Amino acid sequence: MKNVIISALMVLFVVSGVNASQKSGCELSQVGALEVSWTGYKTEKKVGVGGVFDSVVYTPVAKSGENFRSILVGSSVVIDTSSVNSKHEGRDEKLAKFFFGMMSDKNINAKIVDIKADKRVKDAPRTGVVEIEIEMNGVKKVVPMTYSFSNNVFEAKGVIDILDFSASEALASLNKACFDLHEGKTWSEAGIAFKTKIEALLCKVEPLKE
Predict the structure, then answer these.
(1) Residue 102 Cα distances to 63, 113, 136, 166, angstroms
(2) pLDDT (tens digit, 9 = 90+) per residue, 70-112?
(3) Closest CA to 197 of 71, 30, 72, 63
(4) pTM for this predicted structure
(5) Distance between CA atoms of 30 and 129, rounded to whole angstroms?
């Protein structure tokens, strides 16, 4: 009887050891660059004008992990505003000089500080809210952005008010420089977005690295 008990304990120990040295689940891997885009608005009809920033330095908190939180929260980005690109050279020069050039820093710094997923819906893109701490013109503000994940693309969209970043002078400067084209109206509201590619690998069981 004693030998039976000892054998059972040994089997339990071996099984426990195997379970402790393995992990299960899907792995998410960040690949490629991060694209940051924006949309400004002009005239009383609120006509949208969009573009991107060509110089964006993205520092992921981790290249891979088990979920969005593990690879996104803590990631940061530095945007060189002089690289603004709306595919219109004259417009970009004015944005760089009369808007971003009026701010205290030519860079916009941003950091992902939180992410909350919506309830999963079968056969639908994953969605939720990601919170971004944005530092612009010496002012920090946390901005909520809605995200979706489908076909290996993570995309988030949100809205900011330029006046929340103490940039009324920059806004007035741009409105003056573009008064005729904007018909005297440059909106303080702006759309912001970013997207990046995230590969979701098949679920598997593999040994944990020591």
Answers:
(1) 36, 28, 11, 11
(2) 999 999 999 999 999 999 999 999 999 999 999 999 999 999 9
(3) 30
(4) 0.82
(5) 19
